[in-house]
């Protein structure tokens, strides 16, 4: 739709509440919003008044729009959330799974629910507690496994029960439901206790542990008493970290927000049984200050399958109370609105601190960018490049005792790593160590492909090595028919920089050389990580890997059911029911192989 037609459509907008839907030239939904008055809100996107960068980009992309009239603002609020969840428009503020905040997850649909550390809250068949700081989440989980002995593995209970429990049972961290050492009903009761614990109900558990410790002491079972004592100490440490902020044993969430520097800051404090157990701050940058954003954030936050509090505390005047009350009434949560509150002040203080941190980080980033700009311009002058080297490739070769020879090629853009462009290579033409041949191969493969596919070449290629390695890279380029890319090498011993076909290192000031060292070290790290991965795969190879018709599931069944090769051989020869998962071909191949081997599985 042309802009002229959009203007005509704007005149027909009603002065009623509803939801508006913006589309691009392909008819894709790019933004969904709600409005008290559709006519006023939608028109604001097409006025020439100052907008933030994100809204300007959005306005440029709008080629058409639709709208849905609702009876009231509450209906518009709920419909907006439903449509955003369904279509996931690019320009909407979406409360995504924040990878910086871990949760504790309890699966709900399994016979024996598991308890896990996770950073993803998408599973609808699970309940999430948190967010936590990573170390705290891991400590809480370890205590849960030690006290409640719930499972932490991913065993599929649709399969047959295992013959014996795993190491978690042997180390007293699991009650082994996989071998039916605990009934389904008893295990379920344990999971209920775990939920109470995660909701902050520590005192009952503390009393039970104290009683158990005393009982073991009276029976002179001192090792067991000492184990319970350690659990009590760990529990008390967690309790001490979680500051008491309410005199009542209430479960409350406190939420506040601020808008500063074209960014929204949201803070959620989780109080469980009167204790402040966790804090979460979400930041959305480059956003125009818009009515109803706080309500949208709250709705998205509590539409996830997380553990709900009894009460939500919000600062009075920041939201429409009728909308919020109606939303939380459906979830049996009380919504309170306060002008002043100790916990709201804590949330506000945390937001202010986060804003200060971001402002300091922005200053550092600007300073760092100035340094990088100076370094890149310095390289341009010293290497007599036609322009500043915005894109730099770096290549490194790695091997393990002459085996698993691999290469990495990383890409830096304007002095920063572009990890999505990183590539790894297995050296195909060499069986023994030959850095020069390996570099030639990688250069020919990488830049030959780029030449064939018409991709843009880098402004500079950095090789981890000295004169020989640089010459090998240049030869690779020449053999591919490429002559216009500058190649340099950075030798580790003296950190000298070489051009091809020269014996004398370049005179490069240390402040400029630093960026080359940074890029070279990253290439080395990436190559080493790939080489380590291949080496570990080789070390994990088992006696069954070379046997035909034996897959991962079959290997798992063998390792789960048999202690050693002799036991497996005997079972096959006697046609024991324990090897019913093997067919005749598999049995024949296993016997053929294992009769030549006698090591333990």
Short account of what is shown:
By secondary structure, this protein is α+β, with helices and mostly antiparallel strands. The chain contains 18 helices and 18 strands.
Question: What do you see in this structure?
Answer:
There is one protein chain. The protein is an alpha+beta fold and 601 residues long. Among the domains are: 3-87, GIY-YIG endonuclease; 252-354, Nucleotidyltransferase, domain 5 (2-Layer Sandwich), CATH 3.30.420.10; 391-537, Nucleotidyltransferase, domain 5 (2-Layer Sandwich); 552-594, no CATH class. The protein has 18 helices and 18 strands. Strands 12, 13, 14, 15, 16, 17 and 18 form a seven-stranded mixed beta sheet that branches. Strands 9-8-7-10-11 form a five-stranded mixed beta sheet, sandwiched between helices. The longest helix is centred in the middle third of the chain and has 41 residues, at 342-382. The chain is globular and about 80 Å long. The N and C termini lie far apart (68 Å). The mean pLDDT is 84.
